[in-house]
Amino acid sequence: MLETDLLLPWQDVKTLSDKQASPIYGVHAASYESIKSGNKTDTPVQTDPPIPEMLHNLSLSNNFTGEVGEILCTNEGALIGLGDGSDPFAWAIGANSLPQGLYYITNILNDNLAHLAALSWLLGTYKFDRYKLQKKPVSKLIAPSNVNIDSVKHEATAIGLTRNLVNTPTNDMLPHHLEEEASTLCKEQNAHMKTIEGDDLITQNFPLVHAVGRASTDAPRLIDIKWQPDDAPSPNRRKVTIVGKGVCFDNGGLNMKSGAGMALMKKDMGGAANSLGLAQMIMANNLDIDLRVILPVVENAIAGNAFRPSDVIPSRKGLTVEIGNTDAEGRLILADALTYATEDDNKPDLLISLATLTGAARVALGPELVPFYCDDPAISAKLAVASEETFDPVWQMPLWSRYAANLSSNIASVNNISGNSFAGSIIAALFLKKFIPAGTPWIHFDIYAWRPQSEPGRPKGGEAQAIRALFSMIKQHYTIA
After folding, report:
1. Which of 98, 104, 250, 435 has the largest CB neighbor count within 10 A?
2. 257 noted as active-site residue
3. CA torsion sign, 428 to 368 to 391 to 181?
4. CA–CA–CA angle 195, 199, 204 (5° rounding)
5. Axis-axis angle for helices 149-167, 175-189 (nearest 10)
């Protein structure tokens, strides 16, 4: 649950009495020595107005250092630690820690930092409380004057949706549940959705999606969402297509995972969850693009009809795929979906794939930094700028074509795994590339969709990754000028 009503539109705090609104002073760690020495007006990072005497004394007696996660509060206001300033979500601790009341930020923030401060406040209110009652945050923030409050709330809502979908255990997030969530979003945003389910995937030529999901008692399906602003077509709009991996649970198939390997596999639909989060952000902000979202949704299960190692399965593209390992299933369902996304009149101006695809990506970059793959330098450069502006970290990895030979098969067009353990994330991206027409403006993200430890505004659990940067890039470069 995310409490968007705890962020209020800007109002001149000078018109409010001291009892109506309390000031928050963001303090950087570098300022601590200045505060300690009593020099409250000439700190390395200036706060405006200066910190009141009572708060100053409280900071001394409590060894307040200004590190992220620190907070102190009196009747004169609150101090929030901003650390070295590299984490704009440090403000989030106020939403979850301050007593009930109305607050405003005294720091002078540029437009981007003000937006992130307001967003962090809302993200600080997030709690996954579907199965366990939790104390709700009650402190409200008056947004800085240079913040578009609607934009912040749309962004926070999309992140909340993504987190909720990933956090929900598989008994309540099987393929049919995920379809229901997508349908609800479509109804809210006036989007159109169709679903191809079960054996219809065979008749409509999605053999890889069907093969991966056929052993589950919950039928595999492909969800296809289309949206236009005000439901009105325009020949000048750019087409943006998002493809998200929706493996609702992955026990590895016949190449079964260990118990530890399965522990977080409810999150293997994180690509689909992030795709729906990005779609919600785009639709709620009414971006002037033609949006399409394609979600292959399955459970990779074990039964007598499960697909096997060494099977050779046709694909929608016509390539045959030898199954080297049933636990490399995500790339299989994405292959059919990416082919479908680039056919005929559906060819997009930007194709995005989001998937919790490999453990190798985590070995390379850890859980927080998202690797992406793209052959188009212009798209990569735009994304890098958007990533920095939104504090949504991504890192470009190479589509090293020489590694594609590792996917060779003696009996099929391609194998779904490499014959060695090297460059796993790159190999997976190169597999996907085989199913995308040359010249397609494509960008692929190998996300984790999970935060292993909590930080302000980012609790342990399901996480939205790369979608804020993508939204910013799409808004700036793919909408009609």
Report:
1. 250
2. yes
3. positive
4. 65
5. 170
DSSP secondary structure string, 313-362? EE-TTS-EEE-S-TT--HHHHHHHHHHHHTSGGG--SEEEEEE---SHHH
* Pair 247, 333: CB distance under 8 Å: yes
Look-up of token digits 């940067």? 469
* CATH code of domain 154-477: 3.40.630.10
Structure tokens at 257: 């995972």
pLDDT at 293: 98
Query: Taking every pair of C-alpha atoms in the chain, what is the biggest distance, in angstroms?
Result: 78
Q: How far apart are CA 421 and CA 114, in angstroms?
A: 45
CA–CA dist 307, 309 (Å, integer): 7
Domain spans of the chain, in order of start = 4-147, 154-477
Q: What is the pLDDT of residue 247?
A: 98
Give the C-alpha separation, 257 to 259, whole Å: 7
Mean pLDDT of successive 10-residue stretches along the chain, which has 481 residues: 89 68 89 61 53 85 90 91 93 93 93 96 95 87 95 98 98 98 98 98 98 98 96 89 98 97 97 98 97 98 98 98 98 98 91 98 97 97 98 98 97 96 97 97 98 96 98 95 60
Single out the residue of 428, 405, 426 nearest to residue 417, CA to CA.
428
Contact in structure between 355 and 273 (CB atoms under 8 Å): no
Catalytic site residue 292?
no
DSSP lists the bridge partners of residue 295 as 223
> How many whole angstroms separate alpha carbon 37 and alpha carbon 43?
10
Peptide bond into 49 cis (omega under 30): yes
List Cβ<8 Å contacts ≥24 apart for 382-388: 382/473, 382/476, 382/477, 383/443, 383/469, 383/470, 383/473, 385/473, 386/469, 386/470, 386/472, 386/473, 386/476, 387/466, 387/469
Catalytic residue among 127, 267, 317, 331: 331
4-147 folds as Leucine Aminopeptidase, subunit E; domain 1 (3.40.220)
Contact call for residues 219 and 201 (beta carbons, < 8 A) = no
Whole-model pTM: value is 0.95
Question: Token digits for 341?
Answer: 């996304």
